[in-house]
Design goal:
The complex is a heterodimer of chains A (about 150) and B (about 140). Chain A has about 150 residues and is an alpha+beta fold. Helix content of chain A is about 15%, strand content about 35%. Classes of the chains: A alpha+beta (about 150), B mainly beta (about 140).
Chain lengths: ~150, ~140
Amino acid sequence: MPRNTFVGLEEVLPGIEGDKIPNPRTSGKLLTVNLLPRADLYIHNINMITSTAFESRFENFLRRMKQEKYRGAGNARGNLNNIVIDERKIIVSVNNTWRNVVEDAYTSMSSPNQQGVSTSGGSLTIKNFVCHPLVALIFRVEYKATIPMPNGNE
Amino acid sequence: MSGLSVPMASAKYSLEFYVTLFNKDLGEFGGYYGRTYRSQAYPMRQAGGSWDMDKEDIIYFHTSYIEKSSFLIIECVIVRDIAGIKSYSSGGYALCDVFQFKGLESVDLIKGSPRNIGSGGIEAAFRSAKAGRVQYEVRPFP
């Protein structure tokens, strides 16, 4: 459970035995919580269907955003045509409906091929995955673009 | 708890309480943080001229912030149920020390809604009219 979050005895906490915090009045102990079994998870061959058009639109969006920023800045502008996405990442988190549990894992994806499919460069390992139907894997896509700065840096 | 002196005969009354964290040093009049807990509805019973609810509820939380300027705010919400139609009204709120660990404490229930703290500050809240008492205990775990 996250910090500063009150949890009652009736609330479901996926990941602990019995899904709920045991009542200390009936269990006789103040706070004894047993965790469910955990397992390492391996994810291979991730394919992400995007499209080259989607990425172009995203690059155009960044270009327009920079144009707005440089508007009225005279000659102080970089070469906006050089804005390109140069990294795509898949970040996988494990969430138990209250918060992300265990460490995120990530892998780089290739640029989309002609069919718009990006493929993962390697496999992913999720350590200590909690085996529970309410624990979800969340796939997040992160793009990293290089934007030239007016002083020549990136 | 007072304030329900003329209950409707056909209605069932129960009490929910909402618990949240408040720090008096956040902003001008303090600020809330964390997630509010909402209890189940517990039946209330009439005892003389006032209302009583003697059920115990246990809640847990963990934090890295244990400044004594933080308070636990317990809002008592009266639920009136007439033929399945529920209406909610505030029965008052209590300002409880949270990181003092003084054992079982009994504090005043202040009339009104805890939103009043946002306009008048915590000192004004302590001076407000009282609506009853609340008992609580905060225990640390290693």
